[in-house]
């Protein structure tokens, strides 16, 4: 047997295997899509500038804010029912995690309708999802009546802004902890506040509706609860590029104009 010939014979399959492996790495990440329909029970029409948004979220961590995997927007929303599809990359999905879909309808940042429960997704059931939204307005007020517009806008500066939502997720306050909040000083570009566990401080730049936070810092306490929410709060502040105020509600927006955090003004006693 010719040893050189034998080496040549087994080298070719190895080369072919390596080539196939390299080709596999070059393939784009596989993608999936979550589809469904959303509607609400109220027999009222949405204003023409309403926006419908649905998000796919990782809800695996109990007691922590949901992690948004991806989102889809209808702008303008039109009228119900709303047919949606949220695309996602397979590499972003963990087999042992739990996922859910939430939807909201907003007008200029003001919440009109929202789902009040997480609807499970990616749980092995490939049927289109059915989402039921509920009105976010109080009493029998209609979205077109703009109740927030009847309340004078709270000033950005010198107001105690209580954090109410991070993205679409409501904010919780752990026992024996302060509520997360911000206060932007009136006479200097400084901010103070609390993330729930730690005190916050830093500076800000505001020009028109543009807003950026800089030099954010805080104390370094470690709390048994609320740390994940506080971390998400700080990350949201770092991404802020704009803001808008409607009545007593402040929305902070990122570079893509998505709301990253919402606040409510609180009268100080």
Automatic annotation (TrEMBL):
One family from Pfam that matches here is: META
The keyword 4Fe-4S belongs to this UniProt entry's keyword annotation: no
Looking up Gene3D superfamilies in the UniProt record yields: 2.40.128.270
Which keywords fit this entry according to its UniProt record?
Answer: Lipoprotein
- Where does the DUF306 domain start and stop, copy by copy? 154-264
Q: Which InterPro entries match?
A: DUF306_Meta_HslJ, HslJ-like_sf, Lipoprotein_YbaY-like, Pilotin
Q: Does the keyword rRNA-binding apply?
A: no
What top-level branch of life does the organism fall under?
Answer: Bacteria
Q: Which PANTHER family match?
A: GLYCOPROTEIN/POLYSACCHARIDE METABOLISM, GLYCOPROTEIN_POLYSACCHARIDE METABOLISM
**Protein name per UniProt:** YbaY family lipoprotein
Source organism (scientific name): Cupriavidus basilensis
């Amino acid at each position: 047997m010719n040893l050189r010939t034998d080496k040549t014979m087994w080298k070719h399959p190895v080369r072919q295997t390596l080539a196939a492996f390299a080709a596999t790495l070059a393939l784009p990440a596989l993608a999936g899509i979550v589809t469904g329909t959303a509607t609400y029970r109220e027999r009222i029409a949405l204003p023409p500038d309403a926006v419908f948004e649905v998000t796919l979220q990782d809800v695996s961590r109990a007691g922590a804010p949901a992690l948004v995997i991806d989102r889809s927007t209808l702008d303008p929303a039109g009228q119900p029912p709303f047919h949606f599809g949220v695309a996602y990359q397979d590499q972003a999905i963990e087999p042992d995690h739990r996922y859910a879909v939430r939807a909201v309808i907003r007008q200029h940042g003001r919440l009109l309708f929202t789902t009040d429960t997480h609807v499970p997704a990616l749980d092995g059931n490939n049927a289109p999802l059915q989402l039921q939204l509920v009105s976010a307005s109080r009493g029998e007020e209609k979205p077109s009546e703009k109740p927030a517009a009847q309340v004078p806008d709270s000033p950005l500066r010198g107001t105690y802004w209580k954090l109410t939502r991070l993205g679409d997720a409501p904010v919780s306050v752990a026992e024996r902890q302060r509520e997360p909040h911000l206060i932007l000083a009136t006479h200097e570009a400084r901010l103070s506040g609390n993330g729930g566990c730690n005190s916050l401080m830093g500076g800000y730049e505001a020009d028109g509706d543009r807003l950026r936070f800089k030099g954010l810092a805080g104390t370094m306490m470690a709390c048994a609860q609320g740390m994940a929410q506080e971390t998400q709060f700080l990350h949201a502040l770092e991404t802020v590029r704009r803001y808008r105020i409607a009545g007593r509600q402040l929305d902070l927006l990122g570079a893509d104009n998505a709301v990253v955090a919402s606040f409510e003004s609180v009268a100080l006693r």
